[in-house]
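In response to reviewer comment 3 from the previous cycle, which asked for concrete evidence that the modeling workflow produces usable outputs, we include below a single protein chain processed end to end. The sequence was submitted unchanged, and the resulting structure tokens are shown without manual editing.
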Amino acid sequence: MLNYLARRVGSSVIQLLGLALLSFTLIHLVPGNPVRTMLGGRASPQQVHQVSEALGLTRPLINQFLGFLGHLLTGNFGQSFTFSQGIGSLISQRLLPSVMLILFGTLVALLIGVPLAVVGALRSDRPIDHGIRIFTTVSFAMPTFWSGLVLALIFALKLNWLPVSGYTPGFVGIVRSLTLPAIALGLSLLAVIVRTLRSSVRHVLSLEYVEAAQARGFSTPRILFKHVMRNAIMPTATVLAVNVGFLIGGTVVLEQVFQIPGLGTLLFQAVQQRDYPLVETLAVLSGAVVVLLNLSTDIMQGIVDPRVRLGGKSV
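The workflow returned the following structure tokens.
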């Protein structure tokens, strides 16, 4: 187990270093000068050079990258060019709306997806199963911004049940503000959950111990919840961990559509203003969440299934 853990941690560290290098390189390849954007078109070349030197942008790129890594390792993410504020403080101010949106969207996907997956597995290849497949395929094909706009048009503008945009703190405010974007986000994740869990449930239902439980007269709900779901849920948890990056990307679009002041909106503003340290930090932290969740899932699988630790594949 220790060897397996060391391999996975080492692989995760390499992934994070690669992510940091890629984020740093890509933002520096984007056309435009962040200092010129800050100062405006009337700034003289001397003023641009002075500010660039003060911000450390005239240093060699390798030195800038090493300084960026140093900030990440110490937890001191530096200053934002655009907001003239510490990046750590900016992230802490914008973190809650984005986290709540991701959690709310995941909850919506699970509340809808788990029952649909179980019904599809129990009624495999029947009309209801085909209907579920069509529904999840359509929900997956719809862009989140389009489904969000449709939901806002129906439930906010037509029915006036929920606010069309904005964010209100507090439990009731969060529920009202994030319900529509969370449904749009959950619908985009629905197909992944339903198809993965349906396949796992069908596989577990075909195993001998389930057939033995059925022969003993155990009820279907008891077999399903006591035996089948415990063994079928792990692949779905793995897929959810992998799709956290997809959820984070979805929040960037939805926060723009619904005017939610979260990290997605902050990232959008930072890219517009060529705010190098802010974009780099947000990209690396988002990727770090994905990498750490995948690492946690792999460790859990290694504990549950020894074949994973030995290099085999779970079935």
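The chain has a mean pLDDT of 81. We consider this sufficient to address the reviewer's concern, and the full set will be provided in the supplementary archive.
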